[in-house]
Design goal:
Helix content is 30%, strand content 35%. The chain contains four helices and eight strands; from the N terminus they run E-E-E-E-H-E-E-E-E-H-H-H.
Length: 168
């Protein structure tokens, strides 16, 4: 009889995708992780008493000092491997909620532990490491960008779907 592999535990985290419109341009806020200094979204583990989107908003406040309107429905998810203290690691599924930022505090809980920067969504896509996160940011940017060309692209997608049943 072959040995049965033990199933890997998968952790769940909730992330905010902070965004704003600046000069008719969609920008995304990225922060650096504390250990590896990679560009990431504000995220954290579930919090007792908070719904998933509320936990994501709380993490955004603690990690980046931002406040805004968070969508209760997730945009999507991505996976990464979280390095834990002691050298262990765990695969993590991150559920992402869009957060339209309305305020950025002068000081916050994790200030000084991370860098943060606003990027155009195309540049943010290039800076994050996880392929599924790149895809989420790109799709969100395409769907929410302003101006004539994005509007024409959205109209073309709508017409393809409405008249021809095509989905892009």
């Amino acid at each position: 009889m072959a040995a049965v592999k033990k199933a890997k535990a998968v952790g769940i985290q909730y992330a905010a995708l902070p965004y704003r419109l600046a000069d008719r341009r969609l920008e995304v806020l990225l922060i650096t992780s504390r250990e590896t200094r990679r560009w990431v979204l504000p995220k954290g583990w579930p919090m007792k008493g908070l719904r998933p989107h509320e936990a994501a908003a709380r993490e955004a406040g603690e990690e980046a000092g931002i406040i805004g309107e968070i969508e209760p429905s997730p945009l999507g998810s991505y996976r990464y491997v979280k390095a834990l203290k002691g050298g262990a690691s765990v695969p993590v599924q991150v559920i992402v909620f869009p957060l339209r930022v309305s305020y950025q505090a002068q000081s916050w809980k994790e200030q000084g532990e991370r860098q943060l920067h606003w990027f155009g969504y195309q540049q943010a896509t290039a800076l994050v490491a996880e392929p599924d996160l790149k895809k989420l940011i790109r799709q969100f940017g395409h769907a929410n960008a302003t101006g004539v060309l994005p509007a024409v692209a959205r109209m073309g997608r709508w017409m393809d779907q409405a008249f021809f049943g095509l989905r892009r």
